[in-house]
Amino acid sequence: MPPLKWINGTLPNGKFVRQAAKTRSWETAERKARLMEAQADPLQNAFVSRTAPSSDFETGKFEGRVLHVDSGRELEFRSVKELVMFVSEMHGAQPRKGCRALRTRKVQKQPPTHIQLKDR
Asked: For the chain, how far is it from start to end, CA to CA, in angstroms?
């Protein structure tokens, strides 16, 4: 019979973890480890935005880019409304009727490699 698997390593928030995965399956232990990493990620649901130099808040001209760190989706926005729509959609809100679909692109994200699995 294969030995029990253990989850051992440092989570993205800096917390060290060493605990039994309570399974003998590598696949199940791997899923548990990735779930632990995702839940401990300090950047979960984080956004990075950059306004264009041409933006002028007094006149209402608001342009730039925004990146949803978790999904890697990026949008070039041309108004506050587009920015708010993008943030809402990334949080699971359905787009309103009559709103044009936002054209986003996927940015490559590196998978986390903090936790390792070990046989006991």
From this structure: 12
User: How many angstroms separate the Cα of 2 from the Cα of each of 5, 25, 90, 113, 118?
Assistant: 9, 8, 41, 24, 12
| Each residue's pLDDT tens digit, 56-114 | 888 888 999 998 887 888 999 998 888 988 888 887 766 555 445 556 566 555 555 55
Q: Within 13 Å of residue 50, how many CA atoms lie on the same side as its CB?
A: 7
Annotated domain spans of the chain: 5-42+112-119, 47-106
pTM: 0.49
Are 66 and 48 contacting, i.e. CB atoms less than 8 angstroms apart? yes
CA 16/CA 9 separation, integer angstroms: 6
